[in-house]
Structures are given as C-alpha cells and as structure tokens.
Amino acid sequence: MLLRDKVAVITGAGPGLGRTLARLMAAEGARVVVAARTAATVERTAAEVPGARAVVADVSRHDDVERLADLVAERFGGADVLVNAAFPGSHRRNVLDMTEADLAAWRAAVDIAAYGTLLACRFIAPHMVARGSGAIVNVTSMSSRAGYAGRSDYAAGKAAVHLLSHCLADELGPYGVRVNCVAPGWIASEVLDDWMRARAAAEGATFEEIRARDVSAMALRRIATEEDVARAVIYLASDQARSVTGATLDVNAGQHFS
C-alpha cells in the first residue's frame, strides 16, 4: 500500500473530493485525520473511513488550525502527509457588480483557500521538519492559471495557493519535506450536472447536447472523477514521488493544457 502507516491530515474533508480522499488514503494504509468546519459533515466523513479521526476546524482561523496540529501531534506524533483541500463555493459575481456583502464573501473565500492553506502548513509542517520527511499536497484548480468571468474569488484563492506551494517547496525542501499541487478541472458530480442543465435551459438545448459539446472539447473525451483526482494526490503524497516537489499535476482529462 502506498501510504502504509503514514499519518495523513486532510482539510476540507466534507462531501465530495475530501471524503473520497479520506476513503482512498485509508485504503492505501494511512491513518487519517479529517478536518472541516461543520461537525456533522466531518463526523459523517470519519464514520465512512475505518479508524479516521474527525476534528472540527475552520482553516481560516488561527486557533482552530493550531488546535488541529496539536491534536495530531499528541495523538500520532505529527503528520506524514498534509492535504489541503478546503475551498469555498464561488458565488459567481462579476467584480463590477459586487455589493458590500459580495466583497466580504470574496475576501472570506480567499482567506479559506489561501490563508487557510498557509496556516495548515505553518502549524503542521514543523513536525515534518523535525522528522526530516513529509509530503504536502495542495488541491488547487485549473482556475489557478486561467480565470473566468464571475469566478475571481475562486481563481485568486487558488492562484495564491499555487505560488505559495512553490515558496514552501523551496523553504522546506532542505528538510526533506515535499510540497506539490494537484489542479483539477471539472469533476463529475451532481453539481456539475445541475450547472449543465441550467446552461441547457438558458440556451434552449438539451442536457445531453450541452454535455456532449463540453466533453468534445476535452482531449480524453470524458470528465475526470473524484477518484481520478484523489489518485493523483495519493501519488504525490507517496514515496513514489520522492523526487517531486514544487510541481503541479493537472487532472482535467485534457480540458486545459498548461
């Protein structure tokens, strides 16, 4: 197993990709600690993953992240793997149309994505440095390098994580700690299907027509799944990637080349 006896901390371990990550990392032998803002959400994830430990934590809050790091240190002696997968939902608003509430939401989104990743690394990575080994994998996005109208909050937050990862790779490399990114594009889900249905209704087309058109623009002619993304994270977290740091692995089925 790729992560046998590793301690893996996953932030943003709610429904969707975070939950899939927790399940597959545990199947690869990791002892998993899952963190998310909502107690019911993170406890449900932990209940689906054998041996997982749930921690309620808002990654944009200094005290919450420090408490998470302390709990991992006390229970396991520190983490071997940190996956930063927390991200806010985009509210799809053009910059010039933003109200005061929208501006506050924009700032909160960037705090979760960028500052939350920074805090998790700041408090969890020292245990890796002390041990002389470790892997951090930050889940960014295709949007970190290609912005789209109405998604500036999401793009700015993920782009910040992208370059933060480069900085951390340079800073932590001498101590044996690797830092990489996985950048998904679209991920197959009900949320994506609902968005396609809304576009179909707006254009007077069928869902099948919109989906076929979108998929035809992807080199692999399919949409990546949560498991596809999670497997890329596991690779970068494992010793198979022991000479890989400061890299970004695109997992978008050829939707965007970079």
From TrEMBL:
Record keywords, A-Z: Oxidoreductase
Single Gene Ontology MF annotation: oxidoreductase activity
CDD domains per record: SDR_c (cd05233)
Protein's UniProt keywords contain Ribonucleoprotein: no
Keyword Oxidoreductase in record: yes
Record family assignment: Belongs to the short-chain dehydrogenases/reductases (SDR) family.
Protein name: SDR family oxidoreductase
Organism: Nonomuraea montanisoli
